[in-house]
Design goal:
Layout (H helix, E strand, L loop, with lengths): L21 H25 L9 H6 L6 H22 L11 H11 L2 H13 L5 E8 L4 E8 L10 E7 L6 H4 L3 H8 L5 H12 L1
Antiparallel strand pairs: 1-2, 1-3
The structure holds manganese (II) ion (MN).
The site of manganese (II) ion has 7 residues, from helix 1.
């Protein structure tokens, strides 16, 4: 039976200071992400996990394959598990602040330039009412990058979009340090984006 586990962070809890504070990182990873891991394991068990052996991103891409009674829980906990796994990977204490390579070219094509892309992404993140995520995704149908938002823990996989970079705008991601100042959190987060990781993720898809 598939059992998901809390993934290790690729850096220490205090490594993203001063942009993301240590206490927030600890609680976010050890408590919130752990709760999504536990919830996912339980909701898969409830629908008979042996009949759903695919990795969670594949399950999310085809939620109809899950019995209706379990769909909403798997959307929430499975999305929560996978969204956070990617979130940790796409941050780094050694961000150089800008994408390069093919991703940079795509950003220039669809958003004119990187500054304009950042502005569009931030505006979209700030427009989310309540809890959710802002994403840079790859739309494989049209072979292009897009900025989208999802509510709560819904994953881009559920609408057949491949997540490249996601920003968690749940209050639990920033409230301890930034309180109601979501714009300050979004602005700070740009400093820790791991563009090498995001760029490689894009290149693997686009090639
Ligand atoms: Mn979160």
């Amino acid at each position: 039976m598939v059992q998901y586990e809390l993934p290790k962070l690729p850096y220490k809890y205090d490594d993203l200071e001063p942009f993301i504070d240590t206490e927030t990182m600890k609680i976010h990873h050890q408590k919130h992400h752990q709760a999504y891991v536990d919830g996912l394991n339980k909701s898969l068990e409830d629908v008979g996990s042996a009949s759903h052996p695919q990795y969670i991103s594949s399950i999310l891409s085809d939620l109809k394959s899950i019995p209706e009674s379990g769909r909403s829980a798997i959307n929430f906990f499975g999305g929560g598990f996978e969204n956070h796994r990617l979130f940790w990977e796409t941050m780094t204490p050694n961000g150089d602040g800008t994408p390069g390579g093919e991703l940079e070219d795509q950003i220039d094509i669809y958003f004119d330039n990187f500054e304009n892309f950042k502005k569009s992404f931030s505006e979209k993140a700030l427009s989310i009412q309540g809890s959710g995520w802002c994403w840079l995704v790859f739309n494989s149908t049209y072979h292009k990058i897009e900025i989208i938002t999802t509510e709560n823990q819904t994953s881009p996989w559920t609408i057949q979009k491949h997540p490249l970079l996601g920003l968690d705008v749940w209050e639990h991601a920033y409230y301890l340090k930034y309180q109601n100042k979501r714009p300050d959190y979004v602005e700070a987060w740009w400093n820790v984006v791991n563009w090498d990781y995001v760029g490689n993720r894009f290149s693997e898809l686009a090639s």
